[in-house]
Amino acid sequence: MPSRSAAEARAFGALSAGSALAVRADRGFGRSTLLWRLGAASAPRAETSLTMLGSRALSDIAFSHLASLATRVPEFALYSSDPLAASRALAERFAGDPLRVFIDDAEHVDAATAAIVTQLAAVGILQPVLAVRNTEELPEEFRRLAARADTVNVTLGEIDTTDAKVMLEAQLQQPVNASSVTHMLIAAGGVPAELALAARRAECEGRFVSARGYLVLAREQTTESSEAAQQAAEEWFAHCATGVPATGQDQILSLLAPLIAEGDEEARLLAGRIESGSGDHGHAMRLLTPQPGDSEYFRASSALWLSHVGEEFDVGQFEDWAANEQFSPTLRLSLVAVAMAHEAYAGRPIAAIERGFGLIESELWARVSGPDSGALLYSLHLAIISEGAHEFTHALRVSAINWDRLGVDHGLFIASRAHAAIEYGRAQEALDLTHQVLALTELGDPLGIAGFAAALGAGAAAMLENVEQARELLGVYREGPPWSGQMLRPEAERFALSAILLVDGPDEARRETAALIARAKAAGLKLQVMRLEHEAWRLGLTPSLDALSASAVGVEGQRAAALRLASDPERVEDAASSMHADGHTLFAAELLSAASRAEREAGNKLRSQALLTQAAELADQLPGVNTPRLARVRVDPALLTAREIEVCARAASGLSNVEIADELFLSQRTVEGHLQRAYAKLGVSDRRQLLPPAGGGTLRD
Predict the structure, then answer these.
(1) CA–CA gap between residue 632 and residue 598 (Å, rounded)
(2) Engineering a disulfide at 670: which of 377, 620, 659, 666 sits with its beta carbon 3.0 to 4.6 angstroms away?
């Protein structure tokens, strides 16, 4: 398992070196398995080894375990009743060729045997490998042996999610959704044996569902006996957040109906949320729209929920409500989260970040239950992404959050990881994570995140020039509710633009971009305008950097500072360097590639080549990724001759002209000629702008 590779390497190294070894692990953590593997490693090399199991029942009988050890060596069976003769015979038999003794449950070995084994180990007769749950419980001589400087000690603790994923996929023979891995690991308490049992039990019960190439664990349903409609509805939402609902939404709505008729505001809010989540937006609006006589609490709660589904809201009013100490901590924190998201979109992400971390240290945060804290975390995530600094900039502050008490929705958590991955140009990672989110939502999508995740995936697929997946995911995005993603919806709309360009063409992409920019300008969302202008330039929908640099004026953050330099040809390398330092390798490569082309068109060949070299070095860090401004070109069989395809495919895979010539039995001059003719047909000037043919083939025989 990945997290144990270093510890296991030390164990196998100690075995090979002839050192004494002590393996410590609680029951179920793989102690005996490692001991078995160490023993199996001895067999191919014909090293003599024996296994001894400590027994609590025999621990008070002197030399009992030594007798069992002696009987394991056939020629010494007669010595089993004579401890001194047995130890002398072992010493003579294995002098110069140590006997490896693998001792499991070593804490239960009798003290006399432990003393003999330790003495024989000291003179090189035995190589003991102890496996124990707690070294403090070992017999005194074994304790001393384990404490010796030349004894290698290895501890096996709880496994992590990476280990769990490896274990589960090996056991189930299919990729397992990350959320399901996490759920099962938590339920197993990090114990490998418990995880394996849980997986076997879930498999036997048919609770694994295959979706989008992943196995997804359908959570066990529970039944509640409460007669209170509000409690049933709250429990329904709680179940929806992490697995299969306890009861159907129609049943919940029927329970709430009489309470709504009696004027129960809480019932109206719950029913409105359920109706909105189920797609009946019109009925939800009727329920959630304030009526004369409604309390201020209802007005704040309904306005909050309506803001999540795309309705306009008054930020100042939200701030006033958030300061109302008579409202519940959950409502107040959720109102602040919406205000924070608006602050980030409006061009003040740094202020939003500081406010978010300040709230996490506040009494208000401490009073909010785990799942209800999610809104603030997603707003903080948005602010960090929007500011544009490196993803590790706030790592220490984020790691200080007590994540154990937070019931963060797994689907949204994985979607946030996909959001970050695509921001940093890691398109394949983003696409894989997107499919995991969509696999989860096939079991139920109460939070309405499928459309948001699909937009991220569509953008990632477009970056990988995967037309089929871009089209499929763009369809899922368009079929979803218009508010999918809630506070992050503008991000979904932006990421979908690259897929729209690939699938529907530039005219449709320009129309959509113009509409989004106009809406953002009307709402005063400066940062969103800047991000959309950047997207329009990256996709080749606008020719000049001037509008982009102008849109960055008055916007906080690292990305805005870099974009303000982007339109100045003398500062383009400074802008790219800043982007690269913040982890935005793709943005930096695009800027340098576009600048290279502009210099070439201006006749400045040397500077053009220097910029192209920098762009190519950065683009090499993004396998398979291409965008209009990156301007890499796939080797296209429809445009080239068979020989040009062979030469270009090899050049795109990294071979030099000399290597290509040797492989194809051509002269270097001939190879250069094929390349130059192919460059002209493909519209590029350098081999570093080539990508392999679709499918990644190199056409090598």
Answers:
(1) 15
(2) 666
